[in-house]
């Protein structure tokens, strides 16, 4: 979340909604505008099912033209549902991923219209990757 | 001294020349290893302990902080000791603070994998932070950190790349951000 906040001007230029889960500073995004909370799967099958349903209804009601994702596993269902509803998917691999790709990145890469990595070594794992340097 | 430092006003006793802020982030697994080490430091410490099961006996602590409080604690500390989460590390570096980073390790139940090792080792390799793998060496790490000249990151153009993409898609986008 902190990483996406670094794109501050981009958010101001567009009609945006945050989709996230409740933990730590996520409460602060309520001050930033529209937000939808959903469950973080945390590798739990039941929580994943809940997330998939929440993601489906959120994607259906929001109908975003573009999704910009930088998260862990919880972003994957929403990205796929939103893609099904016609959204273009932008995925920014986390700054923490220096040499090894994330599972969320690997699962979203096939449907991404724009896939950005922050370390050059990762570009070799993702055929669509664009190297963007650090977001910080 | 006219200026009241936040850590002092929160009850830390100033007994040395430096103040330490220790942060373990909001990850849902405990990081007791770092919290215990922080509790044993001779310097005054404020610890953000997150989901730790161990509560410090010798220093001021809080479980979670909002971003503003976190930044305030970083500003007033002389050294920031943090887990290997990029949010914590980047916040401290952007504020110009020396950073000691302790990666969470899966074998201790501190994370689901060891990916924090990658970013901590890479930033230590380039001299931006001090990496600490064995918390028994925490005092030595603090001394090394005092020699650092912290600098923020630079050279990224992700915002431009995203803006160009959005322009190519069309104006007035409805965007969901995750």
Describe this structure in a few short sentences:
The complex is a heterodimer of chains A (136) and B (178). Chain A has helices at 2-5, 8-12, 45-62, 75-84, 103-108; strands at 15-20, 34-37, 66-69, 88-92, 112-117, 129-131.
Describe this protein's structure:
Chain A has five helices and six strands; from the N terminus they run H-H-E-E-H-E-H-E-H-E-E. Chain A starts with a helix and ends in a 5-residue tail after the last strand. Helices cover 32% and strands 21% of the residues of chain A. The relative contact order of chain A is 0.13. In chain A, the strands form two sheets. A four-stranded parallel β-sheet of chain A has the order 3-4-5-6, with helices on one face. Chain A has a two-stranded parallel sheet with strand order 1-2. Chain A has 136 residues and is α/β, with parallel strands linked by helices. In chain A, helix 3 packs parallel to helix 4. With 178 residues, chain B is of the alpha/beta class. In chain B, helix 2 (32-39) links the parallel strand 1 and strand 2. The relative contact order of chain B is 0.14. The model of chain B has no long low-confidence stretch (mean pLDDT 88). The chains are: A alpha/beta (136), B alpha/beta (178). Chains A and B meet through helix 1, helix 2, strand 1, helix 3 and strand 3 of A and helix 4, helix 5, helix 7 and strand 7 of B.
